Amino acid sequence: MITNGAPAAIADVDLLRVNTAVEPQVTWRLNPNISNNTSTACILQPGESLTSRVQLLDAGGVPVSPERDMRLVITFGFRDTDGQWWKRDIGQPPQPCETRPVA
To answer: Which of 13, 18, 35, 58 is 20 to 30 Å apart from 74, CA to CA?
Structure first.
């Protein structure tokens, strides 16, 4: 879940990466078993959230069962009202980007 905690709207919100702190080589995908599941939102007003249901995948592309207390590193990008692009790991400060961030 990505929540806009800023006092202004953010745009072009995009979930870029989800991996584990212990095994960064684990990849991810949107969970194909959930309909209307997305990794993007055009605009998030203050307090609004984007919830994406994901699956972690091992090196062979097989879904990995989440472990209890598994720590995830979630990275997303967005654009502020001034047109500045940002990239952020949840729990860390946002980092400015010159162009739209990619995974």
So the answer is: 35
- Rounded to whole angstroms, the Cα distance separating 23 from 72 reads 10
Residue 14 and residue 16: Cα distance in Å, rounded? 6
Question: Distance between CA atoms of 19 and 17, rounded to whole angstroms?
Answer: 7
Distances (CA, A) of 64 to 28, 31, 90: 9, 12, 21
Single out the residue of 72, 98, 69, 81 nearest to residue 15, CA to CA: 72
For the segment 32-84, what is each residue's pLDDT rounded down to a tens digit? 999 999 999 999 999 999 999 999 998 888 998 878 888 889 999 999 999 99
Q: Return the H-helix or E-strand segment holding 17.
A: strand 10-20
- Token pair in block for residue 17: 């990466």
